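Dear all,

This email documents one entry for the complex benchmark we are building for the journal club exercise. For each entry we list the sequence lines for every component of the assembly. Then comes the predicted three-dimensional structure of the complex as a token string, followed by one or two observations. Please use this as the template for your own entries, and keep the labels exactly as they appear.
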Amino acid sequence: MILHRIYERAALCRAFEEECFRRIKAGQVTCPVYLSAGQEYIPATVSVWLDERGITDRQIFVQHRCHSHYLCFGGDPRALALELRGDPRGCAGGMGGSASIHWPPANLYGHDGLMGTQVPIAVGACYANRKPTICFLGDAAAEEDYVLAALGWASTQSLPILFVAEDNDLAILTKKRVRRSWNIHEVAKGFGLTADVVSDVPEELWRALDDCKWPLLLNVRTTRKYWHAGAGCDDPNTFDRHLAVSAALDAGYVMDVRFKALEQVKMAWENQCPRIGNFARCGLPLGHEGVHRNAHEEFIQIDVQSGSH
Amino acid sequence: MATMTLRETIRDLTAAHLDARHLVMGQCLSAVGWCGNTLPRRQDMTELPCSDVAGSGFAVGAALAGRRPIYVIRYQGFNWLAASFIVNYAAKSKALWGRPCPLLVRSIAMEGQIGPVAGSSHHSVYHRMPGIKNFAPMTPGEWRSAYEEFMAGDDVVFLSEHRGAYDNAEELPPLRPERPEIVLFPISITRFSAAQAAIEMLVESARVAVHHISVLKPFQLSLEASADLRASVYGGVVLDDDYPDGVAKALAFDIATVSGRPMRVMGLAERTAGFAKRLDNLPPSKDEIKNLIRKVCYP
């Protein structure tokens, strides 16, 4: 059942972020962290949809608040947990922290920290190799001038690209209506893209993905559960999509999924060393940087010993 | 064998680059003279929209995808908009994620009644950032060498070109009089003026050495230049087509540190250029360089 697959990915994301929240509070994670809880149904639905539709040779571009994208596209939770602690075995060797993570096996590209830069870069990559490209951005990034120019050129070139604007209505804490009087899906339509606005209800998002022609921009309304950065909650009564979806599913199934997700996350955070099967920087030239070389090689050796991840 | 100019060299290598299915990207490439006639007259180059910031992002994305783009910036002043993607993503990609992002940026300088933005060189914009090789090739051999280095590696390479050099077909060897009084280290278009100034100063019996700089970063002082500087009476001068508070002072500091000799700099005047001829802000001319030499050597 497709909803179950989406739910299982989202549940893993939620469990990871809740554990991350606790570890930030406990002072075990000290870099700035952008928790994606509340918004996880977007990458969960998009990733399952891509798998289901056979769009497997693809490239993914994200920005900060992308733990869920990383996990939904197959990123190793252990490499992410290590990354958040600055460990050289982390998915970006400790360089990426929370905001600039990547996962080469899924062609998931890291972000440099300047909001929205992934959009022109995704468009350029898509132009260059014509691979199906999925580019996630936030509603604030949509206001960057270079993002708008990139939407325009993607349309001009009729590129096979999907832009997913995750619209939580917040730039840190500043609401969209304070920042602008226009809607990105309408602007995208003006550029000639197919565009729509939907909620992060999986069925609704799925239908939009099925119905629309690429290049496509979907503005997906969603809700950020935690602070912009760090472990805190602006409003404890904030709507929570995960609770809503969980409530609609069989309670036994929900319990089982949650248990498995928690177990996986617990292992990821506690099993720091050394059983990371899919070594953090796989797909990259061996020892591309001296500083990461030993850790990199260790992963490979461990892989061989343990068989597989 | 006929000697090729710098213009012809760039054009031929660009055509070969396209033949190899690599990309050449930029704004208005085919318009008004094909970028000083340095581009082959063919349609398989990528015309970008006039979005200077996003355009460099497109080039970076193409580089990530492995197409080794040559990204052409028609006026060096546009680097202020283009630089953000180049320095923050392309130049950092290898260090952050181990993903190479090989990109060749061709940036073209000119001057004279061209206003506050489009004139002069701006290679200093990139110089302070790690992850970028910074070259200012003025000869066919230097451009070819920079291109070959780009193709052989996986780095971001910035080429600070100058339209005034496109007709040049000669290599520019160092000028090394015995026991020089002063050593010039010219960059970009100032290299031609510096060489002329040094030759003309012979009439005044001034012994002026010239050691051209085309590789700005990673910079290495040649043994010959170091020897001439140590033997010099008055030290050296770095000459530049950019404002002096940038590459010129950085290299002057490096050279002074290595050689222990006093170094000076001479570049654009500390003011904004205008469009009227009287408001030009030009690189040091031959006569200005000669005057500086006289001032230092015969005060």
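Observations: Chain B has two domains: 6-165, 182-297. Chain B has a mean pLDDT of 96.
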